[in-house]
Amino acid sequence: MSRPTSKHFVRHSSRSLQMRWPQGLLHSKEVIMLLMPKSSKTSNPPSKSKLAPAAATKKTSLLPIYLILMTHLNLDVKNQKAVFDNILFTTAATKLGAAAGTSDSEGLWKLAKELHTQANELHTAVKKNDDDAAKVLKHKAGATATEGLRGLAETLYKEADALATKVGSADGNAAQGLRDAVGQDEKNGLRQALAALGDARDDQLTTPVTEVRNQYNTVSGKFDAVKGQENNYTDDKEPLYKAVEAAWNAFNDVYKPEEILKNSSNDLQTTSPELTKDTVLELDATGTLSGGGVSGSPPVKLAGIIVVTSSDQQIDTPLTIGGIGKSSGVSGTLNLANDGTIHVSITSGSTTSNLTITQTAYNNLQKTTDTLKIGASKSTPRDPTNATGYAQTLSLNNETSFKKY
């Protein structure tokens, strides 16, 4: 089978000759490859050393993503140089990546591990049924009705009462149940238990501490019931529900900050350094094309950037591609892997990832000038107007080809 004509080839920076994908996007519920063509009047993009990506770890989530290939296609795009300038994370991002460390014995990752350990110890200490833990909870309760947890419980009661009065029985009396469990005053419910603990002598804390914990569990269950009715709190009831939620969170910030710290530090340890939506990473990868009009071509060098758009899947998880419709006959496997330095590579185990395009698919795609869709039938493109952060800086929300689904 004959090799593709020159119009099917592009170059990226100083890299070797590359195979041009048929015009359009590669889209699946895992991956979209978005071609970012170069204007004839713009200069070459900066070299890899100039791209400053965020650090990634094997435990970082990256599905789905947009793989944006910087190419030299002869299409009209506004100021590609500006696009390249905008994707740089600057020297600060590179330094942050280095500071994060590559293992839990280095840099920020080490500190995160230490924080996790200490938070666990603190959480364990205050949850014990001993005198020290009881004294901590008594201090949190407050010495007067307006201090500490006692004051916060009063606020929670008032907010729950306002919601219950407004919604009536439309929420299955969930708000009313929460209000009553908290207590109208310090003679009822959780508020009564907190008052008893706050007034108790230090050598008589066992019973009031147990009662506070029991009452807290009851109130927690009642709040969960309210949360389950959130769909009923619309229009003028919505701000009342939000006020209840805020009051409950404020109460927990004092009642169990050790648990919140423990959970947060655990998340930090297992995902550090953490990537967020619209983080931009450098891509340095290799791939091969086979089948149809690209049979026998040399390995294709893929180079560009990755824009993180959600956090559903960990690095090192294979992304299987299967074409539908006009893309039937397109298949392959991509595996995102962290190389331990500053960029993410695409591999497939110990070999390169592969993208296969059959002759029929290749012929069809040559006639499809705007899109190449890959993935399950339920795959839905990302709305360009939803681009935020660095993705918006890249002007993806205004990019013509980004909208061609």
Give a description of the structure.
The protein is α+β, with helices and mostly antiparallel strands and 405 residues long. It folds into 2 domains: 225 residues, no CATH class; 161 residues. Helix content is 39%, strand content 16%. Strands 3, 4, 5, 6, 7, 8, 9, 10, 11 and 12 form a 10-stranded mixed beta sheet that branches. Helix 5 packs antiparallel against helix 7. The chain starts with 8 loop residues before the first strand and ends in a 12-residue tail after the last helix.
Q: Helix amount, in percent?
A: 25-40%
As residue ranges, the low-confidence spans are 1-95, 261-276, 281-314, 339-352, 368-382, 399-405
Count of distinct structural domains: 2
Question: How many individual β-strands?
Answer: 12
The overall pLDDT, averaged over residues, is: 58
Q: What class, by secondary structure content?
A: alpha+beta
Condensed summary:
Helix content is about 40%, strand content about 15%.
Features:
405 residues; alpha+beta; 2 domains; 10-stranded mixed beta sheet; two-stranded antiparallel sheet; 12 helices; 39% helix; flat; disordered C terminus
List the helices and strands and how they pair.
Blueprint: E1 9-10, E2 18-19, E3 25-27, E4 31-36, E5 65-70, H1 80-87, H2 90-100, H3 107-127, H4 131-141, H5 148-167, H6 174-182, H7 189-199, H8 206-227, H9 238-255, H10 257-271, E6 280-290, E7 300-308, E8 318-322, E9 330-338, E10 344-347, E11 353-357, H11 359-366, E12 372-373, H12 389-393
Parallel strand pairs: 3-12, 4-5, 6-11
Antiparallel strand pairs: 1-2, 3-4, 5-7, 6-7, 8-9, 9-10, 9-11
Helix pairs in contact: 3-10, 4-7, 5-6, 5-7, 5-9, 6-8, 7-8
